[in-house]
Automatic annotation (TrEMBL):
CDD domains: init_cond_enzymes (cd00827). Residues 2-165 form the Hydroxymethylglutaryl-coenzyme A synthase N-terminal domain. Residues 181-247, 258-351 form the Hydroxymethylglutaryl-coenzyme A synthase C-terminal domain. This is Hydroxymethylglutaryl-CoA synthase. The keyword Magnesium does not apply. Its EC number is 2.3.3.10. Keywords: Acyltransferase, Transferase. It comes from Virgibacillus halodenitrificans (Bacillus halodenitrificans). It is an enzyme of class 2 (transferase). Belongs to the thiolase-like superfamily. HMG-CoA synthase family.
Amino acid sequence: MEIGIDKIGFYTPHQYVDMNNLAVARNVEPEKFTIGIGQEEMALAPITQDSVTLAANAALQIISEEDKKAIDFVIFGTESGIDHSKSGAVYVHKLLGLKPQARAIEVKQACYGATAAIQMAKGHVALHPESKVLVLGSDIARYGLNTSGEATQGAGAVALLIGANPGILALENEDVYLTNDIMDFWRPIYSEQAFVDGKFSNEQYILFFQKVWEQYKEKTGLQLADFEAICYHLPYTKMGLKALRTVIDEAEEQDKERLLENYKTSTQYNRRVGNIYTGSLYLSFLSLIEQQERLKAGSRIGFFSYGSGAVGEFFTGVLQPNYQAHLNTEQHAKLFSSREELSVEQYEEIFSNTLPTDGSTIELDVKQDPAPICLAGITDNKRQYINKLD
């Protein structure tokens, strides 16, 4: 029995800032952002969107009534959780109208969370082949205005439906992983913003990739030539390229060209969204399969997942026959084209408009947010969510 990704959905907020304009406002050469780190636009979440609503909006695109009957497990991967106790998955479960006979949990390990969720989902489906699992990777990356990490912020979510006989990608079983207790990126519970040792984190990302890649080759005997593409977790789009370049000379020239071309294709969506932590690897995969028309069924895709702190994993999947029929390429193109560009001043104002942390009641204007699912306010310390389609 094959298990893997049956459907994939994506959502990003309706507002963004152009990185050229941000660079000028910060007295930085625009090429430092657009070429140096490889970002063109940065999605910005309004106050009416959080990790829960982003995830629910991503899932809303792909979940049919038939899927609702089969989903008995919702796993929410995030490092932007909204409650220390209650999982974001429970909120999404209700907002989507899923059946009560389901598990709903949240998992956390920096940007690795959604990968852990997929592996957990795979095990669940192996035991219950009739089941489907909804996996969510949803985050809002915030480092603060005028900080060193500002240009790598972003907001968005990816939703994946995991099941038997998948329509898009069958996951293979020869995965490898690595854990090491390091402090390259972290966010204590008392802080709204993350702390990062940027140079160290970049070094560890590359080191983890090299180690799991060596493990994988030793375990399977496969080489770069056996891959049509490798997708990477992308805190910024240049990061994955730095890792790929450390092993690319293992390949023949035609394989190098293919892998580098497909890497570039896999970054197109991320360039326009920014870092979405747990969802960024799967946004990269989505960009690849929706934008690279030359991909064929039977192609092997590699995935490198990295979550600071740190856990890394390399795993693989094979594209399924007629996988294109399961994609929402036009819908995602419309999502991008309908977004509103903000001035830097507007971005700074929206970024600084945050929810109260003292228990105050607040009512939010959801009419300004075109998303179907929004945060409508806070009452009695409880977030109030609405689905406009209900």
